[in-house]
Structure formats: C-alpha cells, structure tokens
Write a structure and sequence with these properties.
The chain is an alpha+beta fold. The chain is built from five helices and nine strands. Bound molecules: 2-acetamido-2-deoxy-beta-D-glucopyranose (5 copies). One 2-acetamido-2-deoxy-beta-D-glucopyranose binds next to loops.
C-alpha cells in the first residue's frame, strides 16, 4: 500500500485528479461503552446540492486517555460491504508523537486531520470534534491518490482505549 500511494503521489497525481467524485451518503457512529464515550452528535448535513458536510462530537468521560488505537478498514460494497485493500491498526499516541513514521496513516490523517481538534500529542483530555468535513475537501485529497474502482465504499474506523473497543465510526461514500 505504501508503495502504491507513493507512486501515485509522486508520478500520477495529475492523471487521477477528477476521475472520481466522492459523495458522502451516510454515517454510523456507535458507542460500545457509554461509560467511556457517547456521541453528542454525528450527522451529515446538506447545505445545498454541492455542499454537504460531516460533523461529529464525541464526549469522553474517562480522561485523560493515554492509550488508544484506531483500526481503519475500507469496505467495498459488493454483496454487502466487504473489507477491501487493507486493514491497519495504528497506535494513536505513537502516531501523534511521530506521524512521519506512519506514512499511510499520515496520509489519511491529512485528509481530515485539520477538521479535528486532535492536533496534539497524548494525553487526550477533552471531547473529540470533527467539524464540517466536506466531500469537496475529501475529493481534492483522495481522488488524486487512491487507485480504486468507482462504486460504493465505507471507511470503517474502530476506536480502542486500553485495548478495549469503545466505538466505531463508519462513513459511507460513493465514488463516481
Ligand atoms: C452501525 O454500526 C454498528 C456497529 O458496527 C452496527 O452494530 C449497527 O447495526 C449499525 N447501524 C446501522 C443502522 O447500520
Ligand atoms: C453552497 O453553499 C456553500 C456554503 O454556504 C456556498 O459557498 C456555495 O456557493 C453554495 N453553492 C451553491 C451551488 O449554491
Ligand atoms: C482487521 O484485522 C483484524 C486482525 O486481523 C481482525 O480482527 C478484524 O476483524 C479485521 N477487520 C475487518 C473489518 O475485517
Ligand atoms: C488545536 O485546535 C484547537 C481547536 O481548533 C485550537 O484552539 C488550538 O490552538 C490548536 N492547538 C494547536 C497546538 O495547534
Ligand atoms: C487505562 O489504563 C490506565 C493504566 O492502567 C488507567 O489509569 C486508565 O484509567 C485506563 N483507562 C480506561 C479508559 O480504561
């Protein structure tokens, strides 16, 4: 995956820009541990035909968090949504401390990181916010680099604290 991303970054950037349009279709935020976290909101909002955004706020009840992991699994819809391309788990605190040593996660974090308030190293001692991430922004970041066929996808993210799953956030998109 790293080498594919690198090739597309360095050589094929322009070739793929504009091939696909990303459209958010749905989002599913689920807490598995209401004593640990709860979604204050989690929604897609359409401002008009061309401007739709995703906003999420997670209340954390057991801060500070010093140990968390995120599993990222893209899903492709064939007969139901099936894992596609990769399945990676990243240690969140190590990543935030040294993003450069995690090129793929860095790449993904750059797609939406600037829309979050996770802009510092551990501990995480506050509620988490993703504020108005728009499909247009994701379009500019993603379509340039991902060598995937058009279709219906989801990005499933599973959030672990102290190695226990606490929540999943799944964003559904179409690439057309
Ligand atoms: C949302 O995701 C959770 C956890 O993966 C799952 O159990 C639930 O069925 C999903 N809800 C819907 C409406 O798909
Ligand atoms: C959609 O809404 C955004 C944000 O308010 C605005 O900048 C944009 O011009 C609007 N687009 C159309 C086609 O109305
Ligand atoms: C990702 O891999 C882990 C470890 O092999 C596995 O437990 C998990 O079920 C996988 N996730 C998906 C969505 O397939
Ligand atoms: C992190 O983001 C918050 C909210 O956007 C901002 O107030 C804060 O100054 C940022 N901190 C750093 C270190 O960039
Ligand atoms: C995680 O483990 C640390 C160290 O054992 C503990 O202090 C903390 O309360 C735990 N946090 C959660 C959310 O389980």
């Amino acid at each position: 995956v790293i080498s594919i991303l690198n090739i597309y970054f360095t050589n094929n950037n322009e070739c793929l820009i504009g091939l696909f349009r990303v459209e958010f279709t749905n989002v599913n935020c689920t807490s598995f541990d209401r004593d640990f976290c709860n979604f204050e909101y989690c929604h897609l909002k359409s401002v008009n035909r061309s401007y739709k955004y995703l906003s999420i706020k997670v209340n954390l009840y057991e801060v500070p968090v010093n140990n968390f992991k995120i599993n990222l699994t893209p899903l492709l819809r064939l007969n139901g949504y099936k894992p596609f391309l990769y399945n990676v788990t990243v240690d969140g605190c190590k990543f935030l401390k040294n993003p450069k040593s995690y090129p793929v996660s860095s790449y993904l974090f750059n797609v939406f990181g600037s829309f979050t308030n996770i802009n510092h190293t551990c501990p995480i001692d506050h509620d988490l916010i993703l504020d108005k991430l728009s499909a247009q922004f994701v379009n500019h970041q993603l379509t340039a680099v991902l060598p995937v066929p058009e279709g219906k996808y989801a990005l499933q993210t599973s959030w672990f604290a102290n190695n226990t799953i606490r929540a999943t956030v799944t964003a559904f998109v179409t690439l057309s």
